Amino acid sequence: MSGLVDQLVNGLTLGSQYALVAAGLALIFGVLEIVNFAHGELVMVGAYLLYAGSAYLGLPYPVAALATVAGMVVVGVGFYLAVVHRILHRGWQVQLVATLAVSIVLVNLATVVEGSLPKTVYSEQSLRTVQLAGTPIAVQRLVVLGVTALTFGALVVFLHRTRTGRAMRALAQNREAAVVVGLPATRIGLVTVATAAAMAGVAAATITPLYSASPTMGTLLSVKAFAAVIMGGFGNVSGAVLSGFVLGISEALAIGYLSSAYADVIVFSVMIAVLLVRPHGLFGRAVRA
C-alpha cells in the first residue's frame, strides 16, 4: 500500500508539471492558433530565474518563487512582442521555424551563461517529509500539488469571471467574429502568452527544488506536454490538464512497477490508445486547416 501511495504522489507531481505546461500550450493554440515549440524552454528560463534569485540574490525560496512567476510574466510579454506578434498571421511553417529557433537560442544561451551542469535550488520543504498512509512524502511534492490546484483554480476564475478571460474564450471559439465585434486581439494575445508564461513559471518554481535546473530540462518536458495537448484535444485547456495528470500517473506507475526504461513507452502508448478511440482527443474538435 505504501508503495502505491508513493507512486501516486510521484505521478501527481509529474502530472502537475505536465498539466501546467500543457495548459499554457493549449491556451496559446486555442486563442492564437500557434504551436509554441519554445514553451518548454520557458520553464527552463523560469528555473534559472529561481536559481538566480536563490543563489545570487540570497532570496528565501518563497520570495524567489514569487519573483520567478512575476519575472516569467515579463518574459511572456517580451516573447509575444518580439516573436509571436510578428508571426501571428504567417504560415505554420514560419511559426514552427521561429519558435524552434527561440527554443534553440534559449538552450544554448543557458549553456553559455550557466554551463551544462544541473543547478540545485534548496528549499526547506524539499528536505522535510510527512507521513501519508505510512509513506514518507517530501513536503515539496505537496507544495507542488497545492500550488498547482490554486493555479488552475485562479485560471478558471480568470477565464470565466473576468472580461479579459471571456474575451480570450470568445477569440478561441471564433476569432473572425470576435475581431469583427471589436475585441482587442493584440492585447488579448499578449495577455494569453503572459498567462501561459506565468504557468510555466509556476511549474519551474515548484518542481526545480525537486529536479534541479538544466539547459535541456524543457526538451523532454515539451514532448510530454505536447502529448498531453494532443491527447486532450488541441486548444482545449481542460483536456490538456486532465491528460497531463493521466500521463504523469501512468509514467510513475510504469517506473514503480515495471522499469524506468518503460516509462516513455507507457506514456505514449496511453496517448496512442486515446487517439485510436477519439482521433481529435478527449475533448477536442477538428482543427481548421
UniProtKB/TrEMBL annotation:
- Its membrane topology: Multi-pass membrane protein
Q: Any idea which UniProt keywords this protein has? A: Amino-acid transport, Cell membrane, Membrane, Transmembrane, Transmembrane helix, Transport
State any single GO MF term: transmembrane transporter activity
- Where does the protein end up? Cell membrane
Q: Name one GO cellular component term.
A: plasma membrane
Q: Which InterPro entries match?
A: ABC_transp_permease, BCAA_transport_permease
The stretch of residues making up the signal peptide is none
GO biological process terms, alphabetically, are: amino acid transport
One Pfam family name is BPD_transp_2
Q: Give TM regions.
A: 15-35, 42-59, 65-84, 96-117, 137-159, 180-205, 225-247, 254-277
Please give the superkingdom of this protein's source: Bacteria
Q: Would you identify the family this protein belongs to, as annotated? A: Belongs to the binding-protein-dependent transport system permease family. LivHM subfamily.
Protein name stated in the entry: Amino acid/amide ABC transporter membrane protein 1, HAAT family
Species: Micromonospora pallida
